[in-house]
Amino acid sequence: MPLHLIKLCVGADSIADLAAWQKERLAEAKAKGVDSDIRHVTRMTPKRDDELLDGGSLYWVIKGHIAVRQKLTALKPAVKNGKPHCALILDPKLVRTARRFHRPFQGWRYLDPKDAPRDLKKGETDTMPDELHAELSDLGLI
Fold first, then answer.
1. How many CB atoms neighbour CB 30 within 10 A?
2. Judging by beta carbons within 10 Å of its beta carbon (0-12, 13-18, 19+), is residue 138 exposed, middle or buried?
3. For the chain, how long is the longest CA-to-CA vector?
4. Which pairs with CB-CB distance under 8 Å and at least 24 residues apart come from 130-139?
5. How does DSSP classify residue 140?
6. Could you give the angle at the alpha carbon of 100 between the alpha carbons of 2 and 40, nearest 5°?
7. pTM to 2 decimals?
8. Partners of 74 in the β-ladder
9. How far is residue 61's CA from residue 5's CA, in Å, rounded to a whole number?
10. DSSP state, 114?
11. Cβ proximity of 18 and 12 under 8 Å
12. pLDDT in tens, 72-106
């Protein structure tokens, strides 16, 4: 059974912000001629890599709500500021999920599949702006 990760998406106000940031970073990497994977570099390396890579995803918390996920495709060693880190290699496809509140935390956490929000079906609230969806969710209306 796959295991997931959950991470705050610091600095992004919407899923569109995350997509734009990843697209920009990918273009920069291609221009430099380095690996052109979508990656998120983190200081700690997950110990349960076999479970994560068996269909697991990284769930992004945007503005206090789990909003989107990306499938984990690999974990690679990385170096940042001369210190060992881990690069979480992500599938480029952003899959919107049913929004659910999540309190702030630092770093990443494991997310059990039974606690992961469901994927939205094609067209399901996809046309509603992220800010409106978050506000309606906070009010308990959706």
1. 11
2. middle
3. 48
4. 130/13, 130/14, 130/15, 130/16, 130/62, 130/63, 130/67, 131/13, 131/14, 133/99, 134/63, 134/64, 134/65, 134/99, 137/65, 137/99, 137/100, 137/101, 138/101
5. T
6. 55
7. 0.86
8. 89
9. 11
10. G
11. yes
12. 999 999 999 999 999 999 999 999 998 888 998 99
Residue labelled with tokens 């906070």: 138
The structure tokens listed for 18 are 């995350």
Domain containing 37 equals 4-138
What average pLDDT does the chain have?
A: 89
- Provide the domain count of the chain: 1
113, amino acid identity: P
Amino acid occupying residue 105: F
The answer to whether 85 and 43 are in contact (CB under 8 A) is yes
DSSP conformation class of 119: B
DSSP assignment letter at 141: -
Listed residue (68, 55, 53) closest to 119, CA to CA: 68
Residue 130 is predicted with a pLDDT of 66
The C-alpha angle 28, 22, 8, rounded to 5 degrees, equals 135
Say whether 80 sits in a helix, a strand or coil.
Answer: strand
